[in-house]
Structure formats: structure tokens, C-alpha cells
Design brief:
This protein is an all-alpha fold. Helix content is about 80%, strand content about 0%.
Length: about 150
């Protein structure tokens, strides 16, 4: 219950933050950059708030699809979009590796180690790209689930 309330409060705060950012950006003529910023922040909230890898995978696929449809109106927005797409794609590869680890590697230590290393590598890479994407659009994010 506590966790659900914390996630809901965090999402509400993000909504307010994104709303303020969108208003600010729209007045300066970079509404499409605001959409990119919003998609990045939404994906970060999804990563931080999800405990079920399958549900998270579906949410991130939709976020990634939305990002691919966005167009940045400034160089920083385009750079942020490009980095975010790479970050979410790497994160999805890491989630797939975690799912492989959980589903296929019972009793096979070598395969389990391989999948765990692959998951760690892609999740770390994805988090690094997402932090860079957020910086490009003027937002700072910290750790993403330990990465």
C-alpha cells in the first residue's frame, strides 16, 4: 500500500512538473521538445515504478513508439530524442535478458550467468543513455533501479 501511494504521488508530481515544463517550452516555441521531455520522464517513472518486467516491457514499448514519432524542434531536442530511443531500446534488451534468466535458466548455471551479465550490461547502458537524454532536454535524473 505504501509503495502504491508513493508511486501515485511520484506520478502526480511528475505530471505537474511536465505540465509546467510544457507550458514553459510552448511559450518559447519548442512544443515538440516538450513532448520529447515528457516521454523521457514518463519512461523514467515507468522504470522506477514497475515491479513486473512483462508489464514494464509493454509500457516501454509504447513509450519508445511515441518517442520515435516525436520530432525535436531544436538540436538539443533531437539529441535528447536520439539518446532516449537508444536508452529505452537498451533497457528493453536488458529486460528481455532478465526475463530469459527467469524463464529459461533453471539448473543451467552457465546460461544463467550469461543472461545475468547481459541484463546488467544492457540495463546499465540504457540508464546511461537515458540520463544523457534527460540532460540534453534540461532535466536531471538520478539512478534508475540501481543503475
Amino acid at each position: 500500500m505504501k509503495y502504491t501511494c508513493a508511486v501515485a504521488a511520484g506520478f502526480f508530481g511528475l505530471t505537474l512538473l511536465v505540465g509546467c515544463a510544457s507550458t514553459k517550452s510552448a511559450s518559447s516555441g519548442t512544443a515538440s521538445d516538450a513532448a520529447i521531455r515528457e516521454d523521457i520522464l514518463l519512461g523514467v517513472v515507468q522504470i522506477r515504478g514497475s515491479q513486473d518486467a512483462r508489464k514494464l516491457r509493454g509500457k516501454l514499448l509504447r513509450t519508445l513508439e511515441r518517442l520515435r514519432g516525436d520530432r525535436g524542434s531544436t538540436a538539443a531536442g533531437r539529441k535528447g530524442r536520439r539518446l532516449a530511443i537508444e536508452g529505452f531500446a537498451s533497457t528493453l534488451k536488458g529486460i528481455d535478458a532478465r526475463l530469459d534468466f527467469a524463464e529459461n535458466d533453471s539448473g543451467n548455471i552457465e546460461a544463467a550467468v550469461r543472461d545475468a551479465k547481459r541484463a546488467d550490461r544492457y540495463l546499465k547502458r540504457g540508464a546511461n543513455f537515458l540520463r544523457a537524454a534527460a540532460r540534453a532536454v534540461g532535466v536531471r535524473i538520478g539512478k534508475l533501479n540501481g543503475y
